[in-house]
């Protein structure tokens, strides 16, 4: 607006120049650093994934040979399938539990603050701590199984962590324990943001409580669900520390996830090429979630 | 490309080093990257430092903690990539060859000739220390991997003797279970599974088959009936283990033997460090014997220091001195007493060592002559890291997956040995 009214301001003064360029100057170093260290290294990883690099990076290009080897690798498929199981269950259970907890806490109960803190605190722990604690709890000779047996239920079995077919579900248990409180907090904030008058109106119309939640409250919470899914899927894809602490990828490699696969091959087994290829596929997985998210965000902004 | 770039980078790093050297009093420091960081190991490394300083050279310590040395290797790779490797690094087994192929290692032939390494070291070990016929590394110790450890009180309560064959191990295990103990302490981690597997292959199929299959990776041997037989025996050992084993660390398993909760453990002689730390005496409070059936075999795991190529003469002479001192009796004795291993040179006085170490040395000499001295697959002495990893995957998956048959596992071993190479 000032541009059109006063031509005086158009004259390039030192302060005007500074005002125009200062933000760019201040931001430039961090942009450059991010471009180099994040996007530059992504590109480098991609280049390495096309080479036969083993112990040290080399530039002997082999096309998509490493990807072909990855596809032929049993362990990669175990890791990918595990991610599907773990990711789907983790996101789903966290959402359901988080929503239920939030709705229950939203009933204007006493000591809500204290209860909320109790549910939220696991999020303050690192996954390493969660992993170690659950490792002990789930150990059949130390934890829950031993405790119930000592109560006299001799035939009680809860040995998922040592059963290769069930061990992946122990990861889900620990991760849900950690993250569902956080989802609850998101939902609670969403619930508080809903205008009371809409609910009152629905009540006046004679809608049942279940119907109000399902048809009125839930649609209002759609953006919250969306953010929660985004955040949880990232946690799921990047899960590394939880696996290392809880199961170490075992029994065998039954609980390997792509992140642990990548680390093992790139750094412990001198297969940088193969590790890079798996890292690129993981990046692909993240992008597959991120791009629709960005797309819908940008589109809604245009409409709004 | 980065490897091609290395020389020029190294030259610039070197000129920097020369400039630094010109101003520094210690004209000839050696920088040593190692992961000897636990109490006893660190003290032993300090002995080496003092020996070196007594000769007027400086020791620049570059210790990177982490038992398996994985962190240290990552640090070493980044240092080498930036053209500034340390003068010496703890590198072992076939990895020495990989670094040698990159042209980064310097030769030690001069000191090797002076000290007569060719006569001092057994041929199998000398081979590992050489690249292209030149000595590039010096061995610090010899660990034996195929050991069986036992708690004598548990054995007595169960009324069994130390087993010498795998069949005896199984029957002794049954008796121990009936007496109310865990027969075989084990930790379900891939390398521990592989350690036990290696001992079973040696114990049930003998040295020649072990060498064919797990060292030379002969596909006929890997897929043979003998391998199927070994795999079946290996899986039967599961019956002797407790269900709390997945993810357990090896020293916790050793502790089960120390505390008298378990009868046996199959583990390399670094386990002795745990027994010693608990104040136990070899031969009295705990027993050691070759893994059942493998008394004529000795699968070794040798720690070594490899020397990186330097062109500064002072630095070179410091490296040569370091290499000489590593093999000298003072360090060999101090270091191996701390590590539970035996000296890399078989000619030393063993009076300070315990009975297990004495037996280890006797077996070492005997197997070196008879041909039973073999590199350990499970500890990175026999095959490249990628092949080793692929074998680990098969072994640990087979061991833990009730539905996988020994035949399937043998087939997968064949493809693991091939698929891993690129």
TrEMBL record, chain A:
Source organism, top-level taxon: Bacteria
**Protein name as catalogued:** Sugar ABC transporter permease
Native organism is: Vreelandella aquamarina
From TrEMBL, chain B:
Source taxonomy lineage? Bacteria, Pseudomonadati, Pseudomonadota, Gammaproteobacteria, Oceanospirillales
Write down what this protein is called.
Carbohydrate ABC transporter substrate-binding protein
């Amino acid at each position: 607006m000032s541009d059109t009214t006063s031509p005086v301001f158009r004259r390039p003064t030192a302060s005007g120049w500074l005002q125009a360029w200062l933000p760019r100057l201040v931001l430039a170093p961090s942009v450059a650093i991010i471009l180099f260290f994040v996007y530059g290294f992504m590109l480098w990883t991609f280049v390495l994934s096309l080479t036969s690099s083993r112990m040290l990076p080399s530039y002997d290009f082999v096309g998509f040979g490493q990807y072909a080897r990855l596809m032929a690798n049993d362990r990669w498929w175990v890791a990918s399938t595990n991610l599907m199981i773990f990711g789907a269950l983790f996101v789903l259970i966290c959402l359901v539990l988080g929503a239920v907890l939030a709705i229950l806490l939203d009933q204007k109960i006493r000591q809500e603050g204290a209860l909320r803190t109790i549910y939220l605190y696991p999020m303050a722990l690192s996954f390493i701590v969660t992993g170690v604690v659950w490792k002990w709890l789930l150990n059949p000779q130390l934890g829950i199984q031993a405790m119930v047996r000592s109560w006299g239920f001799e035939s009680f079995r809860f040995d998922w962590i040592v059963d290769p077919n069930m061990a992946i579900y122990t990861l889900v248990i620990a991760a849900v324990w950690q993250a569902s409180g956080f989802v609850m907090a998101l939902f609670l904030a969403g619930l508080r943001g809903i205008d009371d008058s809409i609910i009152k109106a629905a009540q006046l119309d004679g809608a049942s409580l279940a119907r109000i939640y399902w048809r009125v409250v839930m649609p209002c919470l759609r953006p919250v669900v969306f953010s929660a899914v985004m955040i949880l899927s990232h946690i799921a894809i990047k899960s590394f520390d939880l696996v290392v602490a809880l199961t170490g990828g075992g029994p065998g490699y039954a609980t390997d996830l792509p992140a642990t696969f990548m680390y093992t091959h790139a750094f412990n087994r001198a297969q940088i090429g193969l590790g890079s290829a798996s890292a690129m596929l993981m990046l692909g997985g993240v992008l597959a979630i991120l791009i629709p998210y960005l797309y819908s965000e940008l589109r809604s902004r245009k409409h709004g | 490309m980065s490897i091609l770039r290395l020389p020029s980078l190294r030259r610039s790093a070197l000129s920097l080093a020369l400039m630094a050297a010109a101003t520094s009093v210690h004209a000839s420091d050696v920088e040593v990257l190692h992961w000897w960081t636990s109490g006893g190991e660190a003290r032993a490394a300090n002995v080496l430092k003092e020996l070196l300083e007594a000769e007027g050279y400086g020791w620049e310590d570059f210790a990177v903690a982490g038992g398996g040395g994985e962190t240290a290797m990552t640090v070493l790779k980044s240092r080498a990539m930036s053209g500034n490797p340390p003068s010496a690094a703890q590198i072992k087994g076939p990895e020495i060859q990989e670094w040698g192929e990159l042209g980064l290692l310097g030769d030690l032939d001069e000191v090797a000739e002076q000290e007569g390494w060719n006569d001092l070291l057994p041929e199998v070990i000398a081979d590992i220390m050489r690249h292209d016929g030149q000595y590039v590394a010096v061995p610090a110790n010899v660990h034996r991997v195929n050991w069986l450890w036992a708690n004598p009180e548990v054995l007595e309560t169960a009324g069994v003797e130390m087993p010498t064959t795998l069949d005896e191990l199984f029957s002794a295990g049954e008796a121990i279970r009936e007496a109310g103990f865990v027969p075989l302490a084990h930790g379900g981690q891939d390398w521990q599974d592989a350690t036990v597997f290696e001992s079973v292959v040696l114990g049930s199929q003998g040295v020649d088959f072990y060498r064919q299959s797990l060292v030379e990776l002969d596909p006929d041997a890997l897929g043979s009936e003998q391998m199927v037989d070994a795999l079946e025996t290996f899986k039967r050992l599961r019956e002797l283990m407790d269900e709390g084993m997945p993810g357990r660390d090896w020293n916790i398993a050793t502790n089960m033997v120390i505390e008298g909760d378990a009868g046996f453990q199959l583990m390399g002689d670094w386990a002795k460090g745990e027994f010693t730390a608990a104040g136990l005496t070899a031969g009295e409070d705990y027993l050691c014997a070759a893994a059942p059936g493998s008394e004529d075999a000795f699968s070794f795991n040798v720690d070594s220091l490899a020397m990186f190529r330097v062109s500064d003469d002072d630095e070179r002479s410091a490296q040569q001195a370091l290499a000489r001192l590593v093999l000298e009796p003072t360090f060999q004795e101090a270091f191996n007493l701390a590590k539970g291993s035996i000296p890399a040179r078989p000619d030393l006085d063993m009076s300070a060592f315990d009975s297990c170490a004495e037996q280890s040395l006797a077996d070492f000499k005997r197997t070196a002559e008879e041909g039973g001295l073999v590199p350990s697959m499970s500890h990175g002495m026999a095959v490249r890291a990628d092949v080793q990893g692929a074998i680990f995957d098969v072994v640990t998956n087979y061991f833990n997956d009730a539905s996988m048959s020994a035949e399937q596992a043998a087939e997968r071993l064949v493809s693991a040995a091939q698929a891993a190479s690129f």
